[in-house]
Amino acid sequence: MTKSALQVARAAYKPKMPKALHGTVKIEEGAATQSVADQEAVEKLFPHTYGMPIVKFVETTDKIDYPTANVGVILSGGQAPGGHNVIAGIFDGMKSLNKDNKVYGFLMGPGGLIDHKYQELTADIIDEYRNTGGFDIIGSGRTKLETTEQFDKGLEILKKLNIKALVIIGGDDSNTNACVLAEYYKAINAGVQVIGCPKTIDGDLKNEMIEASFGFDTACKVYSEVIGNIQRDCNSARKYWHFIKLMGRSASHIALECALQVQPNFCIISEEVEAKEQSLDDIVNEIATAVAKRAAKGDNFGTVLIPEGLIEFVPAIKALISELNDYLAHHQDEFDAIAKDQQRQYIISKLSADNSAVYASLPEGVARQLTLDRDPHGNVQVSLIETEKLLAEMVGNRLAEWKKAGKYAGKFSPQVHFFGYEGRCAGPSNYDADYCYSLGYTASALIAAGKTGYMSSVRNTTAPADQWIAGGVPVTMMMNMERRHGEMKPVIQKALVKLDGAPFKFFASNRENWAINTEYVYPGPIQYFGPTEVCDQTTITLRLEQGK
Asked: So where's the catalytic machinery, residue-wise (predicted)?
């Protein structure tokens, strides 16, 4: 395989990790835990893994002999920078416990476990992928582990390979499924531990024990570089308004972090739209007002950042989507049988009066996109809804109305972009390379401690890596009950942007100035070598959250 000079140099990078993980560790247990909400319902569903304590690893001089324990790993869901380093951390951690331990990768996600497709991951294979982006070492998939038939089928291959523990590397839904699997294997005394690792570039899998989901740092740096480049072009050509949609279906963490890094003229935060009960019309008026104010200064250019999931946070459309999801969960075949040119009228006739009126008011293209195939969790695939085009068109129409009324005299030429895949498989930043390796190594320590139903946790990451705190958090602690496919299901509670949090407050205190003036920042590409303040910086979000 031909490699670039950067790949060769990155292969030699030694990830930094918490001091406590460098030798033999012992476990410190905290108090019993409970779920973030719906305690009675969650405990009833997880009687064997509910209420377990938070754990922390500390150094010890004790010598411990660990028996051989083979481990399986699964990459689940969308890619995120650093996944390969999680696996490298698991591999190195397990080998440090016992040189005869083996690590097996199940191919193409959870489906590999069910279909018994796997590969032993040897040192030669692992070394090829250290500090690289992507999930191509074993591939990923979106098969949901949710039935006892699947669990039993998986157990067959786990027993055959003498696998004592399974690590599932994924987002909130994947880790929810990992917890269900842990509960089942514990209930039947299968002798298999299940550990999760927190992955999602969207940044919505976090709490006081999981301060960042891996990949978020790298993805935001990649997007911010490109937005910065667009802003430089924008400020040079001085004739375009760029509408830029960013990843983030359920939360606006990416949009907010990128706004903090590049200081655009306008950034929508979905959670604020919902809190203020804004309509699409309200959002369009706000953007058009910013465009008009800049035009009055002679600046007919600018940037607008839009979170991917915005449409679901507009209250009227959120209510519509909720009813649509429920209806199509039970009538998808009936809907599919309707001729395409009659589907719009069919939906209008089946919804409640309010939601029917909202649906009927939407442009044909957007209405159509709301009824397209659902994702595996039964949700609208909002990444397919071209919100950036919709807003650019609506702002243009609003400005044309104002021009006719003599309220606006500027020029408006929009350009639209969607940044998604560009950030998912980027080479991990030093932060993500270190953090992910530490998460994997911590997972091996949780396995050695006999834990199951836990998520690997590494905290205090704004400090130097040797001061990071490694441990584990029970997955049930993060759960609540939510409606999925028309039924109440236990799921990890998504972390939304907190409007009373330091990152949003900082953004809110500066956005009026950024809107009118041209205060662009151009972050440039990710730096891997050089001064710590350039190479090892965390996200601005994390620094503000921790008062750094």
From this structure: 202
Give the pTM.
Answer: 0.93
Question: Would the annotation count 78 as a binding residue?
Answer: yes
Query: What are the residue numbers of the active site?
Result: 202
pLDDT in tens, 489-511: 999 999 999 999 999 999 999 99
Q: For residue 266, report the phi and psi dihedrals to the nearest 5 degrees.
A: -155, 135
Angle subtended at Cα 486 by Cα 480 and Cα 491, rounded to the nearest 5 degrees:
20
Q: Are strands 193-198 and 163-170 parallel, antiparallel or unpaired?
A: parallel
Instruction: Tell whether residue 227 is among the known ligand binding residues.
Output: no
State pLDDT tens for residues 90-135.
999 999 999 999 999 999 999 999 999 999 999 999 999 999 999 9
- Pick from 74, 85, 11: nearest CA to 458: 85
Give the whole-angstrom CA distance, residue 212 versus residue 546: 12
Q: Cα–Cα distance between 259 and 398 in angstroms, integer?
A: 25
Q: What is the DSSP string of 348-391?
A: HHHS-HHHHHHHHHS-HHHHHHHTSPP-TTS---GGGS-HHHHH
Q: In this predicted model, what pLDDT tens digit does every residue of 348-367 receive, in sequence order? A: 999 999 999 988 888 787 88
201 is in an annotated binding site: yes
Binding residue per annotation — 424?
yes
